[in-house]
Amino acid sequence: MKKRLPEIIRTEKNLRKLRERLLDFHPYDIAGIIPKLKPEERHKLYASLTNKELADIFSYLEGKESVLLFHELDSTKGAAILEEMDVDDAVDLLQELDEERAGEYLELVEDERREDLRYLAGQESTAVGSLMTTNFIKIEADCDVKEAMRTLIREAGETEVIDPLYITRDDKLVGILDLKELIIARSPLKVGEIMKTNIVYSDMDEDLEIAAGKIRDYGLSALPVLDGETLVGIITIDDAMDVISDEAEYNYGSLAAVGGDIDEKVNVFVSLRKRLPWLLGLLLLSFVTASVIGGFDEIIKQATILVFFQSLILDMVGNVSTQTLGVTISGISRGELEDRRDVRTNISRELRISLINSAALALLTFAVALVFLAIRKHHALWEVSLILSVSMFFSVNISSFVGLITPIVFKKIGFDPAVASGPLITTISDIFAVFIYYGFAALLIHLSGGMA
Amino acid sequence: MKKRLPEIIRTEKNLRKLRERLLDFHPYDIAGIIPKLKPEERHKLYASLTNKELADIFSYLEGKESVLLFHELDSTKGAAILEEMDVDDAVDLLQELDEERAGEYLELVEDERREDLRYLAGQESTAVGSLMTTNFIKIEADCDVKEAMRTLIREAGETEVIDPLYITRDDKLVGILDLKELIIARSPLKVGEIMKTNIVYSDMDEDLEIAAGKIRDYGLSALPVLDGETLVGIITIDDAMDVISDEAEYNYGSLAAVGGDIDEKVNVFVSLRKRLPWLLGLLLLSFVTASVIGGFDEIIKQATILVFFQSLILDMVGNVSTQTLGVTISGISRGELEDRRDVRTNISRELRISLINSAALALLTFAVALVFLAIRKHHALWEVSLILSVSMFFSVNISSFVGLITPIVFKKIGFDPAVASGPLITTISDIFAVFIYYGFAALLIHLSGGMA
């Protein structure tokens, strides 16, 4: 069915019939093909649908795309569509437009809505304020349920979120009322008597991710946002879902060092611009490792056997640092590493894991290296195995610590902790590890007066 | 406030007062402290709250914990709570119980509910059927809006999801009606005249992740599940959010090789059991790399300078394979690599990126290596730089391919693609890379008759 959508728009001449046929498609699917249409086909589509229907479609378009398309509309039509959009979607769109253009549209919308839009557009982009909507239903606590039902019927048409209802006293939030409870309630009850008072809420300046996490964990359909005790807006679950989904993708992309978001569908050059700088930077950092190894020139010439196992140490260092990094970043994004005590608990927990891991790895390394060297009939098999397993033990612990502490420090100094990607941490840990490995070997060889 | 919850339960003697004070807390928060209470305190809590209130609390408990607590209740109370729970939460709980016990409870619940529970519990666990609820409102398409409103009022109290309403003809789904539209509609309209017909739905056996993705992308509050054309259940947005959140965490944890889920809050030994086997397995695989390097013994002795740059090649190999792996797994979990054509497009796209990346890396490597070697006054700086940059070019391309193809092959043969963790792919790519690096060097040295 979806494949036929552009064809329908191209071939259907009668605008009224076109609308009827378009309404069989979900606005999301129509939004998906709009950018692929020719301008004249788009104008046909705009002419056939109502402003409300177009508003639904535009709310699914994102970023630059929505702006480009919006510029094709004349200002009156644009303002009419803005007026019909959910207020949070309208704000998103306005924020993408250049200021002058946004101002033009704002002039054309109704006073009350303009005020809402201005207020919401002024919120900080990482805080809940930026994602909230002001379009929900507030009811005074001492209102009778019958009267509340009348308010609902009167306002429902113009309101984005009708469930739950927010119960206030002088604009202060005092309770939440599920629509279901109102529907089954009988007069002369007051809404204050049937509302729930165990309110979960978010402060204005709370992080988006924390607020979205509350919606997920508490299983809410919307989260009220308070400024002091005053109810100023709500965050809905579908927006929270986007936040969680985007954050997960961002963290995943960062761990994989593809520069934040995963870029499956964008073109090759956009991908390159995101990934290549990472790679070039990491390459330069790797030359530091090469210099460190170069510094142990003499040792390597004396004991080339050490070279065979270098990758073994560096591989494990990369593995453990990626593990601890993953656990730490994931803890940070779930808001579990907010206070000093949590951080300390986490560090001590990870270090205990690391001690046991490294001991196990050192033992296994020792055993397998012995066998490996015995097969090759190496004369210094005990010494080499010892150097290897001791270095393994220390390198693994240090790199666990690097993976653990880097994102925490990044966060502390105001960097995005997710920037500490797996490859970055691995390369840094490598530098420590080659120091330990060849350094320890040099020490031992020096003490014993030559080995290989 | 939360810190006082256990204290309130411990000290408040009057059950009625206890209930009043408990109702100030969200069921999620009460669920959070229940496992930490003593059995006699839990019994006090159970005695003070209604079955509906307890059902809300139990629906937030998960897995083994909920079962342990449920076993403390006598069967009648347990059944009463099951009866009050949302049907999908009740199914989750029943599936955790052993069969005999589950059967006991099922005997005690109402006939109609028992049938629903049995039906839902029988669904495959990775398909939408396992997460759907049957507790929503169906209305016949030719029902008058006034009559529909009456149905709503009658059923709302017993129904989990009241918005949207599902419009059917002989159990076949023909439309979706937002509650808002019903509230503002006036008789003599029929629901069939005001419903939306652009239905987004899921088939019974569709993957949970795909269904959850639809709910997110289309911005739905619930997704109807069809068996043929018959409406058999719905998936709600809060369940979809859990699916997306869990999947993201699983993928992230897999990329970091911590064995699937991230394990922040569990104890050290559970974490170890998940992470250590990965590390030990990877260690053994690294010995393969060590053997390969060992095979180039003679070359290394002749040209120890090559050793300085080995980590450089292996680092980059790890970085690019992790990048392509991340992009590929993320594409698979978004359902973007379902058919052969998508896979082919993605492979060709990633390979083009890889060619450009590797060329850039090879050039930079050549330049920096020249400088590096010139500073060290190495006599064969051109040869070594050439070996290095040519190996870089080929190794990077091969490891991109490894990161790209492994999860696709895993998926094809029915493995979980996310099992292909960053460290695994890196270690495999390393083996190819050392072959290429020392192999190419050996070839060149052989051809030129000695170098270092």
Describe, in plain words, how this protein is organized in 3D.
With 452 residues, the first copy, chain A, is mainly alpha-helical. Chain A has 3 domains: 2-122, MgtE N-terminal domain-like (MgtE N-terminal fold); 131-244, CBS-domain (Roll); 268-448, SLC41 divalent cation transporters, integral membrane domain (Tetracycline Repressor, domain 2). Helix content of chain A is 66%, strand content 8%. The first copy, chain A, contains 21 helices and 6 strands. The first copy, chain A, has helices spanning 5-11, 15-22, 27-33, 39-48, 51-58, 63-71, 75-84, 87-96, 99-108, 111-121, 145-155, 179-184, 191-194, 208-218, 237-255, 268-295, 297-302, 305-333, 340-375, 381-412, 422-448, and strands spanning 136-140, 161-169, 172-177, 202-203, 222-227, 230-236. Chain A has a 3-stranded mixed sheet with strand order 1-2-3. A 3-stranded mixed sheet of chain A has the order 4-5-6. In chain A, strand 5 (222-227) and strand 6 (230-236) form a beta hairpin. In chain A, helix 8 crosses helix 10 (111-121). The first copy, chain A, is elongated. The first copy, chain A, starts with a helix and ends with a helix. Chains A and B meet through helix 3, helix 12, helix 14, helix 15 and helix 16 of A and helix 3, helix 12, helix 14, helix 15 and helix 16 of B.
